[in-house]
Every structure is written in C-alpha cells, then in structure tokens.
Amino acid sequence: MTTAPQPIALPVTAVTCLEDRAHVERAVVLELEAGVQRLRLGPVSAMAVDRTLHAELTADHPAAVLDVRITRSWTPRGPLPDTDDDSALRRRVHTLEEERLALAQRRDRLQARRDLLGRIATDLLREIGEGAGSGETDGPRWARELDRVDEERGSCGEQLRAAEARLAALVDEIGEAQRALHVSEDEPAELVGHIELTVETAVAGPVGLRLSHLIPCALWRPAYRAVLDGDSLTLETDAMVWQRTGEDWSDVRLTLSTARSALATDPPRLGEDRLTLTDRSVAERRTVDIELREEEIGTLGPSPVLGLPGVDDGGEARVLRSPAQVSVPSDGHAHRVPLSAFTTAAHSEYACSPELSPLVTRVVRFDNLAGHALLAGPVDLVRDSGFSGRGTLDFTAPGAPVELAFGSCDDHRVVRHAEESRDSTGMTQRTVMTRTIRLHLSRFSAPGEQGDQVVALRERLPISEVSAVEVRMREEACSPAPDAVDAEGIARWDVTLPPNGHRTLTLVYELSASAKVTGL
After folding, report:
1. What confidence score (pLDDT) does residue 2 get?
2. Same domain, 59 and 200
3. Are residues 346 and 382 in the same domain?
4. How much is the pLDDT for 310?
5. For residue 62, what pLDDT is reported?
6. Which of 110, 226, 385, 416 has its CA 20 to 30 A from that of 127?
7. Has residue 316 been placed in a domain?
8. Is residue 232 located within the same domain as residue 332?
9. What is the DSSP string of 357-398?
C-alpha cells in the first residue's frame, strides 16, 4: 500500500445551510495508481462531525473507498519572537507602552508636587495670620513668598494638565495599534483536521472524489426588502448567512434548507385517552355557565415551533437555492445573499382598528409571485422618500396574498369611547347588555392640500357559541351603519375624509341572555 507524502487540497464546492448547522460537500479529481493507496487530504475544519463523513468515487474503471476518517493535529503556540525579529507594528506598541509608563510616573510626581505646594501655601497663610495678630508687619516678604508659591503652583498645574492630555492620547494610540496588531498578525488556528482516505483502484488514472459531512457553527435566516413605487411593489428575498466553521466558503453552490436534522424522527408514543359520561346535577341543568374570551382567528398559516426560535416554514421543509455561486468568509458576521425578486401590482389602503391601536396605517396588499414560499422574517420597507422602517413578513405560500404595513399616517387621529349598560326584562327575565362604541376620526391637512382620503375602520362584535346568548347589532341606532360585517364579527366602514375633515361613527349592539345564563 502506497501513501501520498503531501496533503491534497480538498476545497468546498457546495454547502447546504440548515437552521443551526451546514452540510458541506467537497469535490476533487485524484490521480491514483493501481492498487491500494492511502491519501491525506486537507486541511479541513476540525469541527467536522465524524459520524457524518461520507466519501464516494466516480471513475470509468472499478474503484472503491475502503476507509475514510478525519484526524486532528494540535499545533501549540510558539514562543514569542526575539526583539530583532519583531515587526515595526509590534515595536511601535512597545515604544508607546514605555512612553505611557514614563508619563504615568511623571504625572504622579507632578501631582505630589502640586499637593506639597498647596500645603506650603496653607502654612504661609497661617504664618501671615499669626504674625499680623502679634503685631508683625513684613508685607513685602509675605507678598514675595505668596507670589512665588502661586507661580510654582500654576506652572505645576500646567505641566500636569499637559501630561494628562498626552497620557489620554497615548491610551487611544496604543488601543489602535493593538487592534491593528491583532488583525495583521493573527495567529493561525491551533487545531487542524485532515481526511485520511484509503482507496483501491484496478487501473491507474484520474478518479473523481466527492466527500460530504455536517459541520456546526453555521446558520441562516430569511430577510426581505420591499420597495413601494406608486401602485407597484418590488419584493427582494435574501438570506442572511453566518458561519464560523474555521474555513471560508469561496465560490460555492449555496442551498438553504429549513430541515431540522437535530430533531428525532421517531413517531410519538400513543397513550390511552378514556372518555366517560356522567349525569348532570339539578343545579347544572338549571344554569348555563359562560365566559367571554379572546379568540384568535384561525388560518392555514404556520404552526408554532417549539424550542429555539428558528425559520418558520409552515411545518414543511423548504429548500431555496442561490442563483449564483457565493462566497461566505468564516468571520461570524452576517452576509446577505440574494435569492429572488419580483415586481407586481399592489393595492394600498389606509386602515385602522381603534380597539387595538389609535394609529391609521398604510397597508399594502399583493400576491406572492416569487415562485416559492415566503418564510417568516424581517422586511425593510422603502418608499419614495427612502427607508421608512422595518416590518415583519409572515409565512406565505406561493400565489397567496401578502399584507404589509408601511407605517402610520401622522395627519390622522382616531379616538375611541365605549359605554355599556345592563337591563332586565320583566316577563322573560332576560338580561340585555347594550354596548355603544363611538369612533371620532379626524384628518389634519397641510395648507393647500387637496383630495379626499378613504380610511377603512374596523371594529369587532362578539360571536356567541351557545343558543342561550344572542348578539344583535342595532342598525337603527348605528350612525352610520357598517358597510360590511363578516362571519367573524368584524364590522367595517370606508370613511371618506376631505382635507381637515372629521367624522364620528357610532356602533351599537346588544347581548341578550336568558335567566339561566351565569358568568356574563
């Protein structure tokens, strides 16, 4: 068996990036001799997962992989270089450190001298006070001594301020030099991996090798950029890729997947669930216990993902591919990779739900024409005036409608007032709860602004799930009546406001319950 003396380069050619790891593929053409050979390939990242290592050969003649494994070698850090071998940058850092040490000592001496002069001035003033009290009159000498001490204190203070200023500048220079030294003279990784490959071929000749494995410290998340230009919208789909695997990905075919390989594939265990029937008591037959609750409207959207927040793919693994080869360095920073873009017609409206928020928001609706599902992620919103903020895009299937909010309108105000009253009828003993909701909508326009503005206001009515409770909207008391009420109890008004106009809308509905209902 022959052994190759030098390692053979094994570059990364394709990467499938998962939620919290990556599947790396490497390819190379080997010139093999007939018989059994042991090859050493690499270097590769030492974080490669051994049990996922897989190698296969492609050739016109019989060839097989007998064994493949990864070996790791530890290279300890060498001793510090001698002074004569130091770089100019390292010498600069050493010089600045010496100057800082000397300057710190000078600052300490100046501070001590300034404190001593302060004590001398105090003693001199006390001596002058005592002499003047005992009848001594030596004014010229006292004046000379005070002037000399003040002059010395002023000179010492100026030198101390100059030393402190230079010391602060030295600290900044040393920090910049050390950062430059760290970048320019960064030592290589200490732990390096190599692939030990044993192959057997019938005849000598070129053989293609394809090797793959999993590696941690790599992940991706979707990101979007929506540009609104009049009635058209352009949506760009990108992928933010991070990796710190120890080796750069240069000109690789990048595939992005939402598959969660870390989750177990075993089906859940089925436990026994017994259902029993019991007779209701007399008190339970006489009363109907109800409660008011908030219920989110269910859709065919994404299902919640347990554990660490990841890519929301709607419960089905999605695969996206970069249209061109990309390069992602191993620096741990986020790198934006373009995936797709499309332009479509968009319908926009000004909408407000006063029960949730008093703001009037511009909402844009369009269809997903990207050709793939839009995964949940952040979206940068761009309008005619430039970047206007950042929103969130929910999971959207191909061809499904998309809804984006492009910020609030500061020239609109909405005020909501709600009133409630209760009454009981004498004959049927039914409890009637009447709720009155008033919405005050105002528009503040700039001087010279023209044109009406349509605002869609939405208010909800409760939905009863039991026949003992009835909900009825009193259309004769509403001013005006809602333009539409959907099956979920959402009432909608399309209000037209002129410049500096205002409107008041009133919604009145009743909740009627029989006497045996409790909890209302």
Report:
1. 54
2. yes
3. yes
4. 63
5. 85
6. 110
7. no
8. yes
9. -S--EEEEEEE--SSS-B-SEEEEEEETTEEEEEEEE--B-T
| 438 lies in the same domain as 510 | yes
Are residues 443 and 358 part of one domain? no
Structural contact between residues 1 and 38, judged by C-beta atoms closer than 8 angstroms = yes
Per-residue pLDDT tens digits for 343-378: 999 998 999 999 988 899 999 999 999 999 999 899
* Spatial CA neighbour of 359 closest among 367, 351, 348: 351
The Cα–Cα gap between 343 and 368 comes to 10
Enumerate residue ranges in the chain where pLDDT < 50.
79, 300-308
pLDDT score of 300 = 46
Edge-to-edge strand ranges of the sheet holding 412-424:
412-424, 431-443, 502-513, 469-473
Give the count of beta carbons closer than 10 Å to the beta carbon of residue 174. Answer: 17
Q: According to the model, what pLDDT value does residue 440 have?
A: 94
Distance CA 214, CA 250 (A): 18
- Residues 389, 458: one domain? no
Together in a domain, 225 and 356: yes
Is residue 280 domain-resident? no
Nearest to 55 by CA among 45, 43, 64: 64
Q: CA-CA distance, 403 to 379, in Å (whole number)?
A: 12
Phi and psi, residue 132, nearest 5°: -65, -30
Single-letter amino acid code for the residue at 323: P
Q: pTM of this prediction?
A: 0.67
Q: For residue 351, what are the domain limits?
A: 218-249+327-408
Residue 153 is part of a domain; what is its CATH number? 1.10.287.40
Structural domain count of the chain: 4
Contact 507, 459 (CB under 8 A): yes
